[in-house]
Amino acid sequence: MENIKYQFLQLQNKVCVITGAASIRSIGYGTAELFAAHGAKLVILDLVMNEQIANDLTKHLETQIGKKTEIICLQCDVRSTTACDDAIQKAVAHFGTIDCLVNCAGIVKSEGMLSINEQDYDLIMDVNLKGTFNICKSVLKVFAEKQAGVIVNLASLAGQRGGGLVGGSHYAASKGGVISLTRSIAREFAPMNIRANVICPAMIETPMLDGLSEEQLNNVVVGIPLRRVGKTAELAGACLFLASDLSGFVTGATIDVNGGIHIH
Ligand SMILES: NC(=O)c1ccc[n+]([C@@H]2O[C@H](COP(=O)([O-])OP(=O)(O)OC[C@H]3O[C@@H](n4cnc5c(N)ncnc54)[C@H](O)[C@@H]3O)[C@@H](O)[C@H]2O)c1
Question: Could you confirm whether 171 is annotated as catalytic?
Answer without folding.
Answer: yes
